[in-house]
Design a protein that fits this description.
heterodimer; A: 114 residues; mainly beta; 5-stranded antiparallel sheet; B: 7-stranded mixed sheet
């Protein structure tokens, strides 16, 4: 069985500050891990993915995440927040099969204060 | 450009009425999924299909039905048995190891 826990349903940062969104996973098989972003009334857009290659993954819009097996974590970071980063962020886990379904966390709503 | 098209963007349903949400993809993906999104609850899986003419129930399939007659299409019907259908519905597809590609969603409201 697989699951994802996102710590903090709401996170608020100042513009220019570090963004840290936390994700811990549970998986009985080697996991594939994903971060998605959702803007209001839109679908989800893939930010980055971990598929068993490099543990530090770089994504779009300056985001990156590090896979830490010992901590079962895949936290999302960005060095300097921008107003346009305000959105909801979802972490997801799946097995390695090409058609395996993704299991999503409950999301973290990021607010960026001017 | 390849992608997933969901229609309509907004849909209103009367009590006791069945409605069908459309999902079409031109990505040649084998697997397709329907999720329901409610505030604070993340995404919950309704149905999924890994191949044409086959589909499986997800975590909250009661009150919903699907079909997969063509690889490109995976429509979702919200039946009158679904007592609380007001939500944002997302369709997605997957092939390979790149995660899901999502449509832009349909917001269903009961009036």
């Amino acid at each position: 069985a697989q699951s994802v826990t996102q710590l903090g349903s709401h996170v608020s940062v100042s513009e220019g500050a570090l963004v840290l969104l936390r994700c811990n996973y549970s998986s009985s098989v080697p996991p594939y891990l994903f971060w998605y972003v959702q803007y209001p009334n839109q679908g989800l857009q893939l930010l980055l993915k971990y598929t068993s290659a490099a543990t530090l993954v770089k994504g779009i819009n300056g985001f990156e995440a590090e896979f830490k097996k010992s901590e079962t974590s895949f936290h999302l970071t960005k060095p300097s927040a921008h107003m346009s980063d305000a959105a909801e962020y979802f972490c997801a886990v799946s097995g390695s099969g090409a058609t395996n379904k993704l299991i999503f966390g409950t999301g973290t709503l990021l607010a960026v204060q001017p | 450009d390849g992608g997933i098209t969901q229609s309509p963007k907004y849909l209103f349903r009367k009590e006791g009425q069945n409605v069908t949400l459309s999902c079409e993809q031109n990505l040649n993906h084998d697997a397709m999924y329907w999720y329901r999104q409610d505030p604070g609850q993340g995404l919950r899986l309704i149905y999924y299909s890994q191949i044409v003419n086959d589909f499986q129930k997800g975590d909250i399939a009661e009150g919903y039905s699907v079909s997969r007659e063509k690889k490109e299409s995976f429509p979702l019907t919200v039946t009158s048995a679904q007592k609380n259908p007001t939500a944002f519905y997302l369709c997605a597809s997957r092939s390979g190891y790149d995660g899901y590609t999502f449509g832009s969603g349909t917001r269903l409201t009961v009036v």
